[in-house]
Amino acid sequence: MVDATTRFFEDLDRRGFEPVLVKTSGTLRFDLHEGPQSTHWLLQIDRGNVEVSREDREADSVVGTAPRLFDELVTGQENAIAALLRGDMTVSGDLRLVLQVERIFPGPSDSRGPRRVFEREVR
Amino acid sequence: MAGTNTVRILDGNTFVVSEDTGDIEATPSEPTGLFSLDTRFLSKWVLTVNGERLNTLSYDDLQYYEARFFLVPGVATHYIDAKLSIIRERAVGGSFRETLTILNHDEKPVDLQIRMDAGSDFADLFQVKDEILNKKGEIYSEVDGDRLRLGYRRGNFKRETVISSSQPARYDQNGFAFSVHLEPNEQWNTAIDVQTFALGPGGRDLRMGLRAHGTERLALEQDLQEWIRNAPKVNSEHGQVSATYRRSLIDLAALRFSPVSLGGQTLPAAGLPWFMTMFGRDSILTSLQALPFAPSLSKTTLRILAGLQGTRFDDFRDEDPGRILHEMRYGETSAFEEQPHSPYYGTADATPLFVILLDEYEKWSGDIALVKELERECRAALKWVDDYADLVGNGYIWYERRNTDTGLENQCWKDSWDSLSYRDGRLPGYPRSTCELQGYAYDAKMRAARLAREVWDDPAYADQLEREAAQLKERFNRDWWVADGEYFALALDPDGRQLAVLSSNIGHLLWSGIVDEDRAAKVAEHLVGPRLFSGWGVRTLAEGEVRYNPIGYHNGTIWPFDNSFIAWGLRRYGFAEEAATIANGILDAATYFDGRLPEAFGGYPRELTKFPVEYPTACSPQAWSTGTPLLLLRTMLGLEPHEGHLSVDPRLPIGMGRIEVLDIPGRWGKVDAFARGRMDMHKLSA
Known about the structure:
The complex is a heterodimer.
Chain A: H1 4-15, E1 25-34, E2 37-46, E3 49-53, E4 61-65, H2 67-74, H3 80-86, E5 90-93, H4 95-101, H5 117-121
Parallel strand pairs in A: 1-4
Antiparallel strand pairs in A: 1-2, 2-3, 4-5
Chain B: E1 7-11, E2 14-18, E3 24-25, E4 33-36, E5 39-42, E6 44-49, E7 52-63, E8 66-73, E9 84-93, E10 95-104, E11 110-119, E12 138-143, E13 147-154, E14 157-165, E15 170-172, E16 175-182, E17 187-199, H1 217-230, E18 233-236, H2 239-254, E19 256-257, E20 267-268, H3 280-290, H4 296-307, H5 332-335, H6 350-365, H7 368-373, H8 375-388, E21 433-434, H9 435-454, H10 459-479, E22 481-482, E23 487-488, E24 491-492, E25 498-499, H11 505-512, H12 517-527, H13 560-572, H14 576-591, H15 606-609, H16 623-626, H17 628-637, E26 640-642, E27 645-647, E28 659-666, E29 669-675
Antiparallel strand pairs in B: 1-2, 2-4, 3-6, 4-5, 6-7, 6-11, 7-8, 8-9, 9-10, 10-17, 11-16, 12-13, 13-14, 14-17, 15-16, 18-28, 19-20, 21-24, 22-23, 24-25, 26-27, 28-29
Helix pairs in contact in B: 3-4, 3-6, 3-17, 4-6, 6-8, 6-9, 8-9, 9-10, 9-11, 11-13, 13-14, 13-17, 14-17
């Protein structure tokens, strides 16, 4: 079974272009630590064009989290900025890059968004 | 909040609020302390000499980042005999530093036990007014060699205060002490350094490598001098005007805030000290007020808010795609999602105001590159107005929080619970819609149309926006006009019923341009008429309304910032005399506050109280009150960017005398503006 994190990065790789990141360039590595094991995901972003690989090499910004938290971040169950403030996610290097990439994470799946008055009446 | 005898100093969002002795003894009613990143890092900081508390002879907050306290031992009635004086000098700039100097004036040597009690409750800024009995984490205090470490841990969330001294001290868990022997006329001193840490796993600080300006006192001083040097000079015959301007400029410098994520760029925070963070609405409106004097604030504000523009639906944060944020906070309650400020998006006006600021900024600066850079965000903002803000489906901006626990009930600038009412005083249901929001939407579309035509090369989009704006204007002038009062309703309810009270919001409508020409004169008449105008300024709610109260937060007080935009609106429609009347009242009021306008003051008639009665509030200076004299200068001088140059069309209040503003920066380079006062005009009846 493919986990949510892998699915997220595979989708991103398939899209190849992320409009929200059109002003963003740089490399961002995610280090997902579980005990002695670390999984790496590397994003190379060039004005919205995104390449995904699993290389463990130097990046402008390195994010560290537990794999389980990262699964929750990319499925909208957890929020990256709150996780960062909480210390559950760490960042070294360029924080701006992380805050830009964080915006492509989805919102909570149970969030309904704004609803018009008449839509509520028919519920 | 904090009492009147508190002394506040700050740098960025690190600040110290203390008693006038320099001591900190935080209680819910006296929320003093050392704060950084919305967390209290010191809640106790009490100096004693030989076990005795000290008494203040005087204190001096020299600059916004430093203060000095002159103290003697004993309580007030004893100090005349004091043979000892103690000077505490402190500054914030990254860390908090305090220098203690003790002088022996006696003919005999003395032996002194000097002690500082130190402790921290690590309260979140949102908790400082509550008794903190149930912190979920663990508070600790450790002596660590030549330093004292105070800390708080909750999971991976860790905040630490590390205290050290240049003179060797004896540390214990509750503070540190020195034994000092002083010969006659001898003095002793030590420099105490208090560092704050927001640590993640591995000991990495959240703010690592990011500072607003240099952390040294000298760097702060140079920064302030440069800030003043780069701003236009204001000379006035009416001496108070230039003094008020200078006060505003320095306060605006103090209010500059550098978000953790932006590597040193600054934008105006909302208010000192409790609101030293990003606020969409406050940062935008203050940037607009300051544009002729400090245009760099606008650029940063736009960039930062664009960088954090909403991208998804998140009901907890009231986030939607395209929405501009309301407030960002860094404390424990944000981190653990007990509060939604990571960031919170629940505001209905910041999104159209964002577009308005971009256009206004370009008109002054000619910074086409930024307009191109933010095209996408502007389009997303306008899409938010059309798609997500229209909760009733009738073409207006509405709001209703989805986070019903901790979200905001009122998402317009009048955000208190009872700020919107029908004529009979009842409060409306949800969703809610206030008039100025529709004005902002209209203005945002008109301004974006200009940008689309002139910069984005999309005339079809420009036409569409203008068409939509024209329809909105027509609809608005039909649905919101209160026929029997000849003004615009404060708000509508979802059934289309008017909240037909007379309010200051109609002034913002003039500023936006949504008012039909043939109705503007009536609106202007109301604004300077006896029900709204007190002699000092325009009341938030008119005298005679059921909920009117001269000290009702949004139901009768006068807000200087509100008045500055009203004056701008009056000038937009050609009511220069009425604008001057308001400018005059507010600038007169400023002289009663040493040039530092409060957030709000009472709506009592001027002839009744003779001086403006300050509304007791938590924050001073408040950013948009600080920006008010700047915008009033602009409206009095009629400064308007026009086809690449700056046009000047002064209309000064009577008795104002000559005003000159030198070196106004913009696409024209730097130009000067001069205005001569008038002696011979008869005053408007107020």
